[in-house]
Structure formats: C-alpha cells, structure tokens
Amino acid sequence: MGFITVDGMRTHVLDEGSGPPVVLLHSGEYGASAETSWYDVVPALVEAGYRAVAPDWLGFGRTDKIVDFSDPTGRRLRHLAATIEALDVGSAAFVGNSMGGTYLARDLAAGGRYFRAEAAVVVSGGGFVPDNDARKAIVDYDLTEAGMARILRTVMHSPRLADDPGYVRWRYRLSLEPGAWQCAASARLRPPGAETGTSGGEFGKPDRTVYENIAVPTLLVAGADDPLRRPGYAEDIAARIPDVELLVYPECGHLPHIEHPERFRADLLSFLARRYRKGAVR
C-alpha cells in the first residue's frame, strides 16, 4: 500500500506480489475504494504468484478528490492509464467491478485505448443501468453509519455485512475522506433539460457498448439478485462477446466478490490460469 504522484495528483495504490500482473478496478458507490473492494482478492492473487495492482480511482478512496465536469469518465480513465504506466505494469489481466467493470468493457469494445488487457473479468458491470428504486436508495447518502448500512443492505443480497458494525464503520470512515461525497455524488448531477426523467447523468441511459468488438478472453460474473441491473442483462452481454465465460451466482447482489469471496477467488484464479498466464503457486 502506498502513494505515487500521477499528473500532479496524489494517487493511492495497492501493489503487492510479483509475477504476471492483474489490475483490479473498483466500483463507484459511496465508500468504494481498492481496499474495500479487493481486500479478499489481493492476498489470493499474491499467494497464487500474481502481482496484484489495485489503484483508487481519481475521486475515490485515498486518491485526490477531483472531478472533471466536462469529461468525468475520460479524466478518470486517463488518470488510471497514467497510473498503470507509472507503475510499469505493461499488459495485464484486468478485473473490474460495477463502475470499474463497465469502464473496462467499454474501453475494450472501443479498441483498448486505456487498458492493455490480455484477459478481462467484468463483475456486475456493463449493460443498461436503470434509474430504479435501488439506485435512488444508494445515491441518497447522508454521511451516517446508518446510511452506509442502508447502501450495503441495498447492494447485497445477504444482510450479513450490513449488520456487522465493524464492517459498516470501516466503509463509513472511508466515505468521510474530504471530497469523497462530492465526487461520488457528481455522477447523479444532470443539467436542466438533459436526459429528463433520470436522476443522474450516468444512469438510465441506453448502453451503446459494442460488446462484439471485445477481442480478449472475458469472464462475466453476475449476481442473480442484483438490484442495480435488469434480470438477464449478463446473459444478453455474454451472447455478444466472441470469447466469453459467464457465471451467475445465486443468492447474490451487486458485489459477488464480497458476498461470495471463496467462490469468486476460486473462479478468478481458475480463469486466469486457463486464459491468461499461470502464476507460480508458492
């Protein structure tokens, strides 16, 4: 765990292990970070002989809190790409959850401008993002522990972690980083007259990703009970990617790697060993 300066911005990165690199792209809800997303995954990758690289996106975790309102997604992607270059990662396997998975899929479908991926794992990412009641519940965050517990109860099928005071407090503390609320909240801002009928600029819009153009081996992981996606969305995406494997976890919401960590770790390592590069098990 440490910090580097990228384009003048203090950037927080988890960078552990050696061997074939695996870059982990976290989600975008309040309190999201590399640490809270991948705490169960990084040790497993290191133990299996991989280099695990998990940056905090610009505006999230402990990275500087900056939002480019003219091009928020592009700025995040350019900063992330510059971070990977500064770390001398080269080509890698990429794993993205939710926002991270959506950005990954879009970039690979557009030719891989930002990510030099040899393989991709998209977890609860891609597809149409409905502006439904569950989405409204997680964007309405009041910076309280009770509010954080409500977000976790919404995005996960099981209430186990939402009922764990220590886990809720951990996520809550990270959501209090100066500027973190404003950066996460910016995704729902909508200028007057634009995309009327939606509560946020990034939600409720058609998914125009050309999944047919994704040219690397891809694993899709979805929760069967994900409240933030329409039922069957993962099957629809999988039908359009040329080289794809699809896993749908039962009794699982939007965060399969957190709700079902043992299964996810096993599925991830199996996919990497078969379709990317084998690590050197220690």
UniProtKB/TrEMBL annotation:
<protein>
    <submittedName>
        <fullName>Alpha/beta fold hydrolase</fullName>
    </submittedName>
</protein>
<dbReference type="InterPro" id="IPR000073">
    <property type="entry name" value="AB_hydrolase_1"/>
</dbReference>
<feature type="domain" description="AB hydrolase-1">
    <location>
        <begin position="22"/>
        <end position="265"/>
    </location>
</feature>
<keyword id="KW-0378">Hydrolase</keyword>
<dbReference type="GO" id="GO:0016787">
    <property type="term" value="F:hydrolase activity"/>
</dbReference>
<dbReference type="InterPro" id="IPR029058">
    <property type="entry name" value="AB_hydrolase_fold"/>
</dbReference>
<dbReference type="Pfam" id="PF12697">
    <property type="entry name" value="Abhydrolase_6"/>
</dbReference>
<dbReference type="InterPro" id="IPR000639">
    <property type="entry name" value="Epox_hydrolase-like"/>
</dbReference>
